[in-house]
Amino acid sequence: MKHLTKRGGGLLAAGTLGLAAGLALGSWSASALGIALLLALAVAWIEGEAPSIQVVREPTSAILTEGGRTRVVLHVQTPRRRRALIEEEVPPGLHIVQGLPRADATIPTKLEYEVEARTPGRWRLGPLRVRVTDPLKLVEETWTISANERISVYPRLDALRDVPLRSRLSLPLAGSYSTGQAGLGSDFYALRAYQQGDTMRTVNWRASARTGKGLVVNQREKESQATVTFFVDARAIGRVGTPTQNAWVESIRAFAALAAHAARRRDRPRLVLYGERVHGPTSARSGDAALTSLLDPLLDLPPTGSIGLAAAVEQVAPLLRPKAPVVIISALLEDESVPFAITSLRSLEQNVTVIAIDPSQHLAASGSPASGIERTLAERTLRIEALRARGGHVIPWDPSEPLAIALAREARP
């Protein structure tokens, strides 16, 4: 889109006024001056046009983890040299740490800047806006160039230890899985001092002789075959807050940490999303991409819709085995079906844990009236009490503190 700059508008007014005055007064000099100004403006209009602009964007890496950085190189090209103001729009999940995504330069040119991943998601770079001007800056043409390049940011994996989730049942005919805990199994776990009741077969004679402080026995790693089912709230209300601080972002982080912990215990995490519809259950693929295969649906699916937890439980219930761990991750806002869902899960003998994300800061950042926020939080408190009354293990989590601290606090006797 081409238009006159402020300077160009002044020149147009001066040329028109000079021509009009010359014609009215019969002054050829005034008319000639007006015509000269208008001709200069016409030449600038032609010179200010850019035949075409092409942009090649080259991020160093298109896949990052929170805290990771990548350098973005922009090659802006046009067949004819033009002065231009170049500005790239950077999405809120990426923070500029070096350089600037803008420049006042003569194209063709190259622009470089570095960003740090701050929030999980699929973040699209651009659009790029290029404002081309003539040498006298009388005429300006603005080009808006969309971009297809996306940077995928995966959540950080917080190290979790004292997690109050336990596998209670082994699944038959499925093979055994180590849990990262001492118990009955085939793989070595640790050494400990001999205790009354230990069999002589467990004594490590070499270690006992080396220490010279009594008998030492081998501990084996406990084995489990439990499937941990995660229900993650993907309703539209999860976006309340800012693009970088909302319940949906915190749900992604919590799920990543807990699913990684379950995988380390050799339990099998699987994912159910509920929002616009019920997605899943999605089971992890085997190999190194196991966790990524569960995180991709979270990054690809923006929170939308209002389908509650009860509908997700009803759809997945036939696939749930008794006494298996079930984890629900939600801010527990505006979902009256949650207590009924917990009742259904408990009737199926599920061990239910709810990660209740505190939405106070998100609601405050959304600009909602204080009275409305107070009412919403009061309703949420009643909902949590109802969950506990129905046998759900609720773990309140304020995202301003690490999830590991909240879990460790609940794990204490």
Quick gist of this model?
With 413 residues, this protein is α+β, with helices and mostly antiparallel strands. The protein is 31% helix and 31% strand.
Polypeptide structure, described:
The protein is an alpha+beta fold and 413 residues long. The protein has 4 domains: 46 residues; 101 residues, Sandwich (Immunoglobulin-like); 45 residues, no CATH class; 187 residues, 3-Layer(aba) Sandwich (Rossmann fold), CATH 3.40.50.410. The protein has 10 helices and 21 strands. It is 31% helix and 31% strand. The chain has a 6-stranded mixed beta sheet with strand order 18-17-16-19-20-21, sandwiched between helices.
Question: How much helical structure, as a percent, in the residues?
Answer: 25-40%
Could you report the average pLDDT, rounded to the nearest whole number?
Answer: 83
Rg is 32 Å
Side-by-side strand order of the widest sheet: 18-17-16-19-20-21
Please count the helical segments.
Answer: 10
List keywords for this structure.
413 residues; alpha+beta; Immunoglobulin-like; 4 domains; six-stranded mixed beta sheet; five-stranded antiparallel beta sheet; 31% helix; elongated
List the helices and strands and how they pair.
Layout: E1 2-4, H1 6-25, H2 28-47, E2 54-59, E3 63-65, E4 69-77, E5 82-88, E6 94-99, E7 102-107, E8 109-117, E9 121-124, E10 128-133, E11 139-145, E12 150-154, E13 177-182, E14 188-193, H3 205-211, E15 216-224, E16 227-233, H4 247-264, E17 268-274, E18 278-283, H5 290-300, H6 309-316, E19 325-330, H7 338-347, E20 351-357, H8 360-365, H9 370-389, E21 393-397, H10 403-411
Parallel strand pairs: 3-12, 16-17, 16-19, 19-20, 20-21
Antiparallel strand pairs: 1-11, 2-4, 4-8, 5-7, 5-10, 6-8, 9-12, 10-11, 13-15, 14-15, 17-18
Helix pairs in contact: 1-2, 4-5, 6-7, 7-9
